[in-house]
Amino acid sequence: MKWSIDFKGVLSPFGILGAMFQKPNTIAYPSVKKELVTGYRGFHTNLLATCIGCANCQDVCMNEAIDMIKIDEVYNEKNASQCIPRIDYGRCCWCSLCTDVCPPHSLKLEEECIGISKYASDFLYLPKNK
Amino acid sequence: MENKHITVFHGPQHPGITGNMSVELDLIGETIQKATTHVGYLHRGFEKLIERRTVIQAFTIVCRICVPEPDPNEANFAMAVEELAGIEVSKRAQYIRVMVLELSRLTAQFLWMAGQSGSIGLYAVGQWAIADRDLILDLFEELTGARVYHMYIYPGGVRRDLPEGFLEKVEKFLIYMQKRLEDYDNAFIYNASFKNRAIGVGVILKEDALQNGYVGQALRGCGIKADVRKDAPYLIYNELDFEVPTQEAGDVYARALVRRAEMDQSLHILRQVIAKMPEGTVMTKLPAHRKFKLKKDDTWVKVESARGEFAYYMAGDGSEYIRRMQVRGPSLVHAFTLLEELLVGAELSDVALIMNSLGICPPEIER
Question: Given an 8 Å threshold on Cβ–Cβ distance, is B142 in contact with A38?
Fold first, then answer.
């Protein structure tokens, strides 16, 4: 049997020891917060002054995550149905189709994406008015 | 002592591949006598789901067909819809699509590298690969608004234009990655322990590869120069200069070398895309949600994913619904015809190594 030693193959992996002196890639969350990226698809916002309650968002949502719910207060007189969207974050996949089809562009996604609650009912999320 | 037959289920959770799939192994000692692939752990019925949704709604499902690289699915879907609906795509959108596809190819190659090195115990390389993949995900996050399921390549173009300074960031990443890949070569590709484990293992013969319809590295690893980007160019690949790397040996190591060379080619393509990026719009005006109709026709489109040829069949019936869509990825034939054959005679410890080298993605089998 012929023996041979692959010197390059044996020695080259030791090069990874240099990584010990490099800056680590990980961050110590939550003491170091990750910067939110502009345009990240996080939570919904809905500017009620412009929302017309057309339910286009409900129609396009393939996960059936959007319900139109009745509100008492009048924010926009063009909103004849007096309904605004409520999102079920147990079903939402953040595809952003609802914001694409919104005629007055009142429904948007903001960068904020961290929400914690011990109640399952909090998955039903009423977008912030902004 | 006499060796007895034993049966071992390898999976459905195991280091070999991304997703749930099991292989039933009949062993004598450590040598595999028979391998049978079992799927069904990850069936989500994408094709059927798509038939019940409008064109625009179906768009959000396709990226989930393959987790490690969702973008070839989006590109295929968009190209099929554009053909059936007669939509033109601007040049800038096509360049951005190629950029996204190549970045996606790199993320998939890093995920492969993490799995392949992990399958032989080189965990440091795996952690590096995942960390470097994250840098690409950061770029995706900025471009598309999401890290893994981008939902960005849309029928008619892409959903957003490039953010300010994005191309410079990609350029910076390319410079970093060109240097960084040398570390991977030293730690993984040239590593004697990887060579000893991978050379001569999982050998695919050229004749079998041609007869059985294998794709991607399984073909190129045994010397067949097949790449959809060259053979049937889509988007703007015919305007770009790149090579199709091949190897002759057909074993796990040959496939690893092909993948490593493809990473270099991806960087090369990305540099050209950045240099040639044209100005213009990125999205064609589309009909409204319920008025977006496909003509009564069918089409077959394909792209080259990181794991090989990836094709969609799509048929429209004149309504806003897709009549039928079928996914033909590399995984089905690789997981059954190829894997079951390659594992016979292999050692138990090589199962994850061989599985990972074939680019099998179970959700794509059970679409």
Answer: yes
Give B290-309 pLDDT, tens digit per residue. Answer: 889 999 999 999 999 999 99
Instruction: Note whether residue A28 is domain-resident.
Output: no
Partners of residue B288 in chain A, C-beta under 8 Å = 101
All residues of chain A having their beta carbon less than 8 Å from the beta carbon of residue B282 are none
Q: Where residue A110 sits, what CATH number does that domain have?
A: 3.30.70.3270
* Distance separating alpha carbons of residues B113 and B106, to the nearest angstrom: 10
Note whether B136 and B70 are within 8 A (CB): no
This complex has an ipTM of 0.90
What does the pLDDT look like over B215-269, one tens digit per residue? Answer: 999 999 999 999 999 999 999 999 999 999 999 999 999 999 999 999 999 999 9
| Cβ distance of B183 and A39 shorter than 8 Å | no
Nearest Cα to Cα of residue B309 among B182, B195, B215, B170? B215
**Domain residue spans of chain B:** 5-365
Residue A10 lies in a domain: no
Residue A11: inside a domain, yes or no?
A: no
Number of domains in chain A: 1
Residues 52-81 on B with a CB inside 8 Å of A are: 53, 56-61
In terms of residue numbers, what domain contains A55?
A: 33-125
Distance from C-alpha of B61 to C-alpha of B365, rounded to nearest angstrom: 15
Under CATH, which number does the domain B5-365 receive?
1.10.645.10
**pTM (global) more than 0.90:** yes
In eight-state DSSP terms, residue B54 is: B
